[in-house]
């Protein structure tokens, strides 16, 4: 059995002002190293809340989230920021690439922030099919190319976990399928575990297993 990257035990979240009403409750998850799972759920069910809890951007009100053996409830803001910067990669629907930086500079950013050498950038750009676009600015790229930049940037520093929030929501179906295949192959190559959050069953089908988020927990979905 590979070691666990992320464990959630009886995790619950109630936002302040909600009179004790829980958005999420009873969440149980065991994510093994290198595993790739999809979490599907209706709009408003708490998918962003779940990602925030996993990344230590927000704290659980019940239960415990453990990332690489560390309880997130015991990390102060600085420790949580460092953990995210070094050990987690993010891919978002709206890409979040920095417009003033070139493709190369966007992908290099996590290495620079972590004080790591930049020799991995060009091989990673080649692996995501952007070797000839290294000097371009994001405004000169298509949506699919921007998401390639995001994937390269999310994995360049070899995190153990990639969190992807509706990464193909802004892409046409053909480009989306290419990006999902690329995401999966890059996860395999870097050894990172992945969590794909989406409302699309088509997108979710690319993962090793699918879980449905409901207000009372995460339930396995049979393909
Ligand atoms: N900071 C907050 N304070 C209070 N309530 C919040 C806060 N953030 C989210 N909520 C509520 O928690 C619930 C879950 O929100 P969340 O954004 O996690 O859902 P989601 O599944 O990501 O939705 P979508 O797919 O539409 O983005 C919603 O009812 C929302 O109104």
Secondary-structure blueprint:
Blueprint lengths: L3 E10 L10 E9 L3 E5 L6 H8 L7 E6 L2 E2 L5 H11 E5 L10 H11 L7 H7 L15 H13 L5 E5 L7 H18 L2 E6 L2 H4 L4 E6 L2 E5 L2
Parallel strand pairs: 3-8, 3-9, 6-7, 7-8
Antiparallel strand pairs: 1-2, 1-4, 4-5, 9-10
The protein binds adenosine-5'-triphosphate (ATP).
Adenosine-5'-triphosphate binds next to α1.
In total, how many domains does the architecture comprise? 1
The CATH topology is Rossmann fold
> SSE order, as H and E?
EEEHEEHEHHHEHEHEE
Q: What is the distance, rounded to the nearest whole angstrom, between the alpha carbons of the first and last residues?
A: 23 Å
What is the overall silhouette? Answer: globular
Helical percentage? 25-40%
CATH architecture: 3-Layer(aba) Sandwich
Annotated CATH homologous superfamily:
P-loop containing nucleotide triphosphate hydrolases
pLDDT < 50 runs, ≥5 residues: none
Could you give a short account of the major beta sheet?
6 strands, mixed
Structure summary, number of beta strands: 10
Adjacency order of strands in the biggest sheet: 6-7-8-3-9-10
CATH class: Alpha Beta
How much β-strand is present in the residues? 25-35%
Q: Name the bound molecules.
A: adenosine-5'-triphosphate
**DSSP helix count?**
7
**Whole-number mean pLDDT:** 95
What does the radius of gyration come to? 17 Å
GO cellular component, one term: plasma membrane
Keywords: ATP-binding, Cell membrane, Membrane, Nucleotide-binding, Transport
Protein name: ABC transporter ATP-binding protein
GO molecular function, one term: transmembrane transporter activity
